C-alpha cells in the first residue's frame, strides 16, 4: 500500500520532500542542533531514495508523466480543455533522469560533508533551509515539462544560491559575489520570462510538448529562442557571461560550490531541452549548433587561460568549471549542427552528443570532488592562497589522494571518467572539424599543467612549520569525498556500460522529439 | 526617535483598518482581485506603519520574532500540506479535494452571474490563507532585519 503510494507519486515526492524538509528545518532547529542534523540527513537520504525510484521507473517504463491537480495522475489532457494540457505536468525522460542522478549523488554527499564542515557556524537553520530548497529547485528544473514551472524553479534556485553564496560574509566580498550572481540570474530570468510570454502568446500553451507540437518557426519564435539561449547560457556560466562564476564559486562555502555546479548544469539541461525538444530540426539547427560550438570553444579556451594565473585555489577551480562547460557545449553543439543529416548523425553526431552529456555527469562528480578537497584544505589550514600553502601531503594524505583523483579526471587521464567522455568528444568532433578537436586537446593539456601546479604548491615540498599542527580532514568530509571519488573511478573503469545504460538513452531522448510529445499529448 | 503625537494617533486609528483590509484581500482571494501574497503584503504594511510612527526601540514589545518565525514556516507547511493531503486520500498532488465537497469552502459554485460566495473554492482559500500568513511573517521579518542595521549603527 505505502510502496504503491510512493511508486505512483514518486515524481512529485522528489520535489515535495526536500521542500517540506526545508520548511520544517528552522522549527526543528529550535529543539536541538543534533535533531536538526539528523533531520537534514534524513531528508536528503529520502530524496536520494526517491530519485533512485524515479530513475528506475524512467529506465524501465519510458517517459514518466505526472499531472498536478488532476483527478488522476495520468490524465495529461483534460477532456474539456480542447486538447490543451492546461495543468503543470512533470515529464521525466532519460535525460531528466540522468540529471536527477547527478543531483541526488552530489546533493547527498555535499550535505554529508557540510554537516561536518559547517557545524561550528551560526545561522545554520537558514543555511540548511536554503540548501534543501536548492536541491528541491534543481530536482524541479530537471523534472518539469512546463515552461512557466521551469521559470519558477530557476527563480527558486537563484534565490537559494544567492543566499548560500553570501552565507560566509568574508568582509563583504561574498555578499558582493552574491549580488553579482543575483543580478545576472535576475536579468537572465527576465529574458526567459519574456521568451515564455512570446511563446504563450503565440501558442496558448505553456507545456513544452504542446508548444513543440504546434511550433510554427515564425520570426517571433526566433526571438524567443535567442532570449532562451542567452538566458540559460548566462545561468550556466558560458563565456561571455562567465564573470559571476569565479566570484561566487570562489567565495561560497565549498559544499555550496559543489551544488552550484549542479545548479549550473541544470540550466544547461534546460538549454538542451528547449533547443532539442521545442525547436529541434528547424531553420536554425545548423546555425544554433555552430553558436553553441563557438561559445563552447571560447569557454574552453578563455576559462583555462584565465585559470592558469590564479592564486586562489577555489577561484582557479571555478575558471576550470567554465572551461569544462565548454566541452559539454562543444559535444552537444556538434550533435545539434548535424541533426538534420542522418548519415553524419550516425557517423559522429550521436557520439558527440553522448560525449557532451557524459561529460555533464563526469564534470559534476570530479569538480564536486575537487571543490570538496579545496574546502577540506581551507577548513584545516584557513588559507586559500596557493603561495602560502605547501607541504600538506605530509598530514592530509587522504585529501591528497582524492585531489589527485579529481585532478587527473579533469585533465582527462585514463582510467578516470574525464578521459572516457573527453575521448568520445575528441573522436567525434575530429570527424566534424579537426581544428575544434585539436583545440579541445590543447585545452585539456593546459588543464593538466594547471593542476600539476596546484598539486605541487599545495601538497608537495617539505613540511612547513606554520602547518605542523594541521590534521587530516574529519571523517565525514573524507567519506563524502570518497563517494564522489568512487563514482569518478567507477565511471572511468566501465565507461562502455555506463554509456550504453545511462548516456545513450539520454542522448536519444533529446533527439526523439516525437516521443516526448507523444508521452504528454498521447500518440499524436 | 518617535514621530509626533498626530502621526502616532493616526497610526493607532488606521492600524486595525489596514489589518482588516489585508485579511479581507487574503480571504476573498478566490473571488476578487488579490489573494494571499497581496493581502499578506497589505497586513505587513500595517506593521511597517507602526514601525515608522513609533521608535524601533519599542519594537520588541510590539512584534515577537519567534511568532514571525513560526508564521513563515507554518504558512509554507500549510500550503504544501494541503497539496499532500490530496495525495493521502488517493489523488495526485494539489488535487482540489475540497471543491464541491459540501464541507468547509465546499459549496458548489452557482451557475451564471452571482455576487460570489465566500464558502466556495475548495482548498484555494486555504492556500491563500497559507500564503498570506507566510508573506505577512516574511515581510515583517525583512523589515526587522533592515532595522537591525540601524541598531548596529547606533552601537558603533
Number of helices of chain A: 19
Strand count, sense and barrel status of the largest sheet of chain B are: none
**Total helix count of chain B?**
5
Portion in beta strands of chain B: under 5%
Q: Radius of gyration of chain A from the CA trace?
A: 22 Å
- Main sheet strand line-up of chain A: 1-2
Instruction: Report the radius of gyration of chain B as a whole number of Å.
Output: 19 Å
The topology string of helices and strands of chain B comes to HHHHH
As an assembly, this protein is heterodimer
Amino-to-carboxy terminus distance of chain B: 17 Å
Helix and strand content put the structural class of chain B at mainly alpha
How would you spell out the order of helices and strands of chain A?
HHEEHHHHHHHHHHHHHHHHH
Distance between the termini of chain A: 34 Å
Total domain count of chain B? 1
What does this entry show, briefly?
The complex is a heterodimer of chains A (524) and B (156). With 524 residues, chain A is an all-alpha fold.
Structure, described:
The complex is a heterodimer of chains A (524) and B (156). The model of chain A has no long low-confidence stretch (mean pLDDT 89). Chain A has a domain at 284-493. By secondary structure, chain A is an all-alpha fold. Chain A has a two-stranded antiparallel ribbon. Chain A contains 19 helices and 2 strands. Chain B has 5 helices and no strands. The model of chain B has no long low-confidence stretch (mean pLDDT 86). The A-B interface holds A 5, 9, 12, 16, 19-20, 23-24, 26-27, 66-73 and B 69-70, 72-73, 76-77, 80, 83-84, 86-87, 91-96.
Amino acid at each position: 500500500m505505502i510502496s504503491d503510494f510512493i511508486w505512483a507519486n514518486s515524481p512529485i515526492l522528489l520535489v515535495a520532500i526536500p521542500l517540506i524538509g526545508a520548511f520544517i528545518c528552522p522549527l526543528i532547529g529550535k529543539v536541538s542542533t543534533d535533531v536538526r542534523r539528523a533531520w537534514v540527513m534524513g531528508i536528503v537520504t529520502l530524496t536520494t531514495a526517491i530519485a533512485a525510484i524515479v530513475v528506475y521507473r524512467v529506465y524501465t517504463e519510458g517517459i514518466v508523466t505526472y499531472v498536478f491537480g488532476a483527478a488522476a495522475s495520468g490524465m495529461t489532457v483534460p477532456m474539456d480543455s480542447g486538447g490543451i494540457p492546461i495543468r503543470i505536468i512533470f515529464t521525466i525522460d532519460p535525460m531528466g533522469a540522468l540529471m536527477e542522478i547527478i543531483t541526488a549523488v552530489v546533493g547527498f554527499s555535499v550535505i554529508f560533508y557540510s554537516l561536518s564542515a559547517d557545524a561550528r557556524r551560526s545561522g545554520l537553520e537558514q543555511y540548511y533551509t536554503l540548501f534543501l530548497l536548492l536541491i528541491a529547485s534543481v530536482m524541479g528544473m530537471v523534472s518539469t515539462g512546463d515552461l512557466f514551472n521551469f521559470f519558477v524553479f530557476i527563480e527558486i534556485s537563484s534565490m537559494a544560491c544567492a543566499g548560500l553564496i553570501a552565507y560566509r560574509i568574508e568582509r563583504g566580498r561574498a555578499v558582493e559575489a552574491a549580488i553579482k550572481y543575483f543580478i545576472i540570474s535576475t536579468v537572465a530570468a527576465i529574458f526567459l520570462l519574456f521568451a515564455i510570454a512570446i511563446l504563450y502568446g503565440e501558442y496558448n500553451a505553456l507545456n513544452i510538448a504542446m508548444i513543440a507540437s504546434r511550433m510554427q518557426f515564425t520570426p517571433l519564435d526566433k526571438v524567443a529562442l535567442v532570449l532562451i539561449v542567452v538566458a540559460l547560457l548566462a545561468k550556466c556560466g558560458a563565456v561571455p557571461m562567465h564573470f559571476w562564476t569565479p566570484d561566487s564559486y570562489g567565495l561560497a562555502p565549498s559544499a555550496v560550490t559543489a551544488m552550484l555546479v549542479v545548479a549550473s548544469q541544470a540550466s544547461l539541461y534546460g538549454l538542451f531541452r528547449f533547443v532539442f525538444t521545442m525547436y529541434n530540426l528547424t531553420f536554425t539547427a545548423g546555425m544554433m549548433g555552430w553558436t553553441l560550438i563557438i561559445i563552447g570553444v571560447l569557454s574552453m579556451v578563455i576559462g583555462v587561460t584565465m585559470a592558469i594565473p590564479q592564486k586562489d585555489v577555489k577561484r582557479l577551480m571555478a575558471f576550470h568549471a567554465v572551461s569544462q562547460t565548454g566541452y559539454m557545449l562543444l559535444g552537444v553543439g556538434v550533435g545539434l549542427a548535424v541533426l538534420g543529416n542522418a548519415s553524419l548523425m550516425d557517423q559522429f553526431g550521436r557520439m558527440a552528443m553522448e560525449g557532451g552529456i557524459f561529460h555533464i555527469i563526469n564534470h559534476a562528480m570530479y569538480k564536486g570532488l575537487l571543490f570538496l578537497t579545496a574546502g577540506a584544505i581551507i577548513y584545516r589550514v584557513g588559507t586559500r592562497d596557493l603561495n602560502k600553502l605547501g607541504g600538506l601531503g605530509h598530514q592530509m594524505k587522504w585529501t591528497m589522494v582524492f585531489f589527485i583523483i579529481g585532478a587527473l579526471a579533469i585533465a582527462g587521464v585514463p582510467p578516470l571518467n574525464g578521459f572516457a567522455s573527453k575521448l568520445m568528444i575528441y573522436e567525434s568532433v575530429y570527424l566534424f572539424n579537426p581544428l575544434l578537436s585539436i583545440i579541445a586537446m590543447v585545452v585539456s593539456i593546459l588543464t593538466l599543467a594547471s593542476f600539476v601546479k596546484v598539486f605541487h604548491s599545495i601538497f608537495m615540498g617539505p613540511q612547513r612549520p606554520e602547518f605542523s599542527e594541521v590534521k587530516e580532514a574529519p571523517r565525514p568530509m573524507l567519506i563524502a569525498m570518497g563517494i564522489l571519488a568512487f563514482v569518478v573511478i567507477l565511471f572511468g573503469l566501465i565507461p562502455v556500460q555506463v554509456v550504453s545504460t545511462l548516456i545513450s538513452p539520454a542522448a536519444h531522448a533529446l533527439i526523439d522529439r516525437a516521443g516526448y510529445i507523444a508521452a504528454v499529448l498521447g500518440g499524436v | 526617535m518617535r514621530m509626533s503625537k498626530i502621526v502616532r494617533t493616526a497610526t493607532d486609528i488606521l492600524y486595525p483598518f489596514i489589518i482588516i483590509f489585508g485579511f479581507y484581500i487574503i480571504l476573498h482571494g478566490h473571488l476578487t482581485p488579490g489573494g494571499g501574497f497581496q493581502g499578506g503584503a497589505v497586513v505587513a504594511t500595517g506593521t511597517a506603519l507602526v514601525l515608522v510612527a513609533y521608535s524601533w526601540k519599542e519594537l520588541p514589545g510590539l512584534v515577537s520574532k519567534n511568532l514571525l518565525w513560526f508564521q513563515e514556516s507554518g504558512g509554507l507547511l500549510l500550503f504544501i500540506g494541503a497539496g499532500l493531503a490530496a495525495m493521502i486520500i488517493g489523488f495526485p498532488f494539489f488535487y482540489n479535494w475540497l471543491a464541491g465537497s459540501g464541507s468547509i469552502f465546499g459549496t458548489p459554485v452557482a451557475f451564471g452571474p452571482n455576487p460570489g460566495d465566500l464558502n466556495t473554492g475548495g482548498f484555494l482559500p486555504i492556500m491563500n490563507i497559507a500564503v498570506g500568513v507566510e508573506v505577512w511573517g516574511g515581510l515583517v521579518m525583512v523589515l526587522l532585519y533592515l532595522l537591525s542595521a540601524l541598531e548596529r549603527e547606533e552601537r558603533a
